[in-house]
Structures are given as C-alpha cells and as structure tokens.
Write a structure and sequence with these properties.
This protein is mainly α. Among the domains are: 7-17 and 43-145; 158-319 and 478-532, Neurolysin, domain 3. The chain contains 24 helices and six strands. The strands form three sheets. The chain has a two-stranded antiparallel sheet. Strand 4 and strand 5 (388-391) form a beta hairpin. Helix 9 crosses helix 24 and helix 14 crosses helix 21 (578-590). The longest helix has 36 residues, at 47-82.
Amino acid sequence: MRKTFLLPLFLAAACGASKPETVPAPPPSGGEPTTDITPVAKPAVDVDAQLITDAKAFVTATDAELRKVLVAAAEAEWANQTDITPAHEEAAAKANRIVNDTVARMIKEARRFEPVLAKLDPLTRRQLQNLLYQMTVSTPIAPSPDDPKQAEELAKVAAEMGSTYGKGKVCEQVKGKQVCKDLDALSKTIQTTRKPDVALAAWKGWHDTVGRAERDLYRRYVPLANAGAKAIGFANVAEMWKSAYDMPADAFEAETDRLYNQLKPLYEQLHCYTRRKLNKMHGDKLVPKTGSIPAHLLGNMWAQTWGWLYKELEPYPGQAPVDVTPTLAKKGAYDEQKMVRIAEAFYTSLGMPALPDTFWQRSMFQKPAGKDAICHASAWDVGFNNDLRIKMCIQKTHEELDTIHHELGHNYYQSAYHKLPILLQNGANDGFHEAIGDTVVLSMTPDYLKQKGLLAKTVKNDKIVINRQMNTALEKVAFLPWGLMVDKWRWDVFSGKVQPDQYNDHWWALRKQYQGIVPPVVRAPTDFDPGAKYHVPANVPYMRYFLAAVLQFQFHRALCKKAGHTGPLHECSIYGNKAAGDAFSTMLAAGAAKPWQDILFDMTGEKAMDATAMLEYFAPLKGYLETQNQGQTCGW
C-alpha cells in the first residue's frame, strides 16, 4: 500500500503564499460614509524555511521506507540468483517492481526540494542529491514509468532478461545424446583451447543462443526504461546515467574520453604486440598483420581481458612464473572457503574487522547441486546492516583468487558505511566501489604471495618484472576500451541515436573503434551480441568498471605513499600496513556522504581522476612493447 506521509508536507507548501496578503475593506452600506480601514499585512510565510523543514522530514521518512523495500528486493533477488525457479523469478520481479515504483515516486517528490538544495545542511542535501542523481546508477534500478501497465511490463521484462541469461545453455547432440553446456563450461573451452574452430564453436554457441534470446526482450526494455527515466525528470536512461557523477552529463562524457585518450597509447602497444603473436600462431588468413583481431582468439568470451593467452604472449619464457594456480589446485590443499579466508586476511592485516559469522553461513561459494544459479561473481549486503555475502562458483585458480579479493573489497566498503543513512550507503561514485578490491589485488605482489605460502620462492630480475607486468596488463590494460564502449553503446541506444535494427551493427562498430576487435563470423541485425554479456540484460551500468580501472592505480599510488614506499609503484604492497589501512578505512567509511571529488582529494590530494598512476605502474612494460613493436603498423 502506498504511504501518504508526504501529504501534510505538500498541503503546507500549497497553502503557503509568496507575497503578503491584505484584508480588503468592507463594502460601503446604505450610502453612508465609511471609516477608512488601512490594510493589515499578515505575517509572510517563509517558503524556503518551510521547504527546508519538509526536506528534513522527507529524508527521514524516505530512509525508513527505502530500507524496507530495498531489503525485500535484495532478499528476493538473492533467492532468485542462487536458485532460479519460476516462483523465485516471480518474487524477484514483484520485489524489484516495488523498488522501481518506490524510487520513481520518491525522486518525483524530491524534485520540489531542488530550489533549496544549497540551503540544506550537508547531510540532508547529500541524501537528496544521491536520490535524485546517483541512485539509479549505483544500483541497477529502472524507475517505473507513470503508466502502471508499462511499469508492470518493465519489471517483468527485466526479470525475464536476467533469468534468461542465468539459465542460458548451449545444447547439441553428441552420439545420440543431448549435451548442454553453461557459460562456465563454454568459457573454459575458450580459455584453454588454441584450436580456432573449437573456440569459434563455443563463442558462436553462446552468442547465438543467449544473445539472440535477449534480443526481443531488450527491444521491449529500452522504451520502457526510457519512460521510467522521463517520469523522474530525465530525457532518457543515457542522460540519467551520465548525470550521476557530480558534474553535468556532457562534462562526464568528455571526462571519460579524456581518461581513455590518456591510456590509448598503452593499449595500442599491447594490441599491436598481441596481434603479431596471434598472426604467427594462426597465419594471415585468420589474423592479419594489420587491422583488428577476431574476438574468439583472446581467451575470453567477450575478449574483454586476455589473461588466458599469457603463455602464448609471455615476453621471457623460462622465467619463474608468478602463478599460484598449481598450489591452489593441489589435491586437498585448498577449498573455496580457505581461498576466501586468504582474502579476508589481507583486509584484516590493514586493521579492518573480520567478516561476520553470517558471511560464512550465507554466502554461495559454489553452484548449489541440482539448481540453476547465476555464477557471475557479486558481493552483497542483503540487509543493508552488515549482512555481507558473496556469490560465486569458485574455481581453484589464480584468477579466481584475485576475484575473491575484488569481491571482498565490495563487502568491506559495505561494512564500513553500513551505519550511514540508506541513501549514503554507496561508493563515492560507482567506480570507487569497483576499485577497492582491485586496489588490493595490485598489492598481491610475488613477495605477498610467498608470504602467504602460495609461492615457494620469488626471483627478482628485469625479465620477471616484464613477465608479471604483461600478465597484469592482459587483464587491466586490455580491459580499458571494453570498459568504456559497453556504456557508450547503451548511451547511443537509450538516447535514440541508434535504432533497434542497428543495435548489433553499432555494437561491433564501437568494438572495432575502441578495442580493435571484430566478430569471428559475419553477424546480422537479427543477432544481438550485447545480450551475451551479463551486465546488459541485468541492466547494470558498466562505466564503473572503466573508472575503476583508472582509480585503482590512483588509490594504489596514494596508499603506497602513505605506507612509506619509495621504490617503483609496481613493487609496492600495502599488506599489513596500518597507516595505509587507516587512510583506506577512512575513505570507505565516508560512503557517498560527500561528492566523490572531495573524497578523492581526502585520500589522494587530487580532485580529478587521473590515469598517470596507471601509466607509471606499467612504465617498464610500455618500454618493452615499444621496442618489440618497432617496424610494426600499430593501430587498426
């Protein structure tokens, strides 16, 4: 039932007058002279003062109601993602519909306080700003359209897209039996095979099956989501998302371009080196010496990271590898919980608290037997009260250990700010939230891994440095253009710049422009390859990952300075350093209580996001790549 707690506030505003009223003189009677009556002014109503009072009451009431609906939605979504059933899907759709309706209504109601935002106390002002601009980006919320039928359909389509992805399988007949593979199995094929036709079959199977299944749903979703954005005062979803960064939407888009251009020369060198190596492996027919790289040959379903090609791209073979997979995979040595304990110990070494007992009881570390579940790694505070959990299907690999450290970064952020009002329980911006765990991963140096018993020994020389940097760059540098173009595509889709029959063509045009990646086979407008990536059908804004790729190095540089590190940035680990931990914890505890520029300044002394820390970190590798690429035609 819709609450009416705002009614008295609206009535008060409606009854207030902006000018003093006068009492008119009574009319003459019987033609007799009357005594002049001077109009008496009534006391002026201070409209701003009334709005300020109302705004404070509004955020108090909003906190209670929003907490209730968000917790209910998180509980329903957790149940659905860890056990996909029709009943759970229906419950999640219903709960998310309530959130969408509630947030849309609250934003509309909050609009009336915009004229007095600057006059509000900082805590009230920030809560309103986050409701009006940040909330729909920091959380995958699609505000409901005004039309109840559209609102119901939006929630239904959103839930169906998520479940379609989570249940996605590619099936084929093998010796008279139907064999089905989910995303994990298909990804393992692409990661490990070096046979182009085998990789192509896995790539094509997932994109053709799951991508196409999302196509018609997404076409229905876009106008419905735009109707919801319009209902709360934005032109479309693209403008809504780009307005969430404490700066005008156009200024934010320009900021992302500035950051990418800072980093593009490094990416082009990595792309040039990788293309040459793949050309030697597969020949001119499959990988030309100039131009773009086919998407299925890079060891990842979306070619977003290239780390599984490390052995083929290793600069100096024969050097001691920095890979803890053999240790983790050793029979009986590690289980999933022990891997998570390793990551927890990093955070506690900085002075942060141990994870609550409920984390270990409620998290999903493996897909439940006999159930469909979404294995895509994610971190949760289901109750918004330190009810921390992660959801993963953990494999015993170095990459998965990194991912666990990343996910616990979300949990420790959630824990640090969980006592703040609900509208401030978020990262300074969504890039901050993704950068926390990745900042920790940068400190997982060979010395750290040896200290944790994951490496038997470490050997230090320039060749090993270049090898390790290559390994890291194949994850972090290779990711940069992908991290940018996913939302570049969605901005163009939601703004109407690109029409539905152009969705897939535009996807690949941007992938070629930013990544230098092309599809391995001809794609048609009837395909929908964006739907093969979780974040598109799940409606999770993606720019956060690009921003995090920049911010994690900026954070790392600042924390290393606080830890007293004076050597090369890539050698720094803040493990066990309480000074760095104190600075880190202070930033986490601030949540979204201030503009991100202020929180960034408090941590780093810099008010702008800056990619020079990433360039500083990878300086040795960039020099190596430039030498290796001499005589090559880089770019595409």
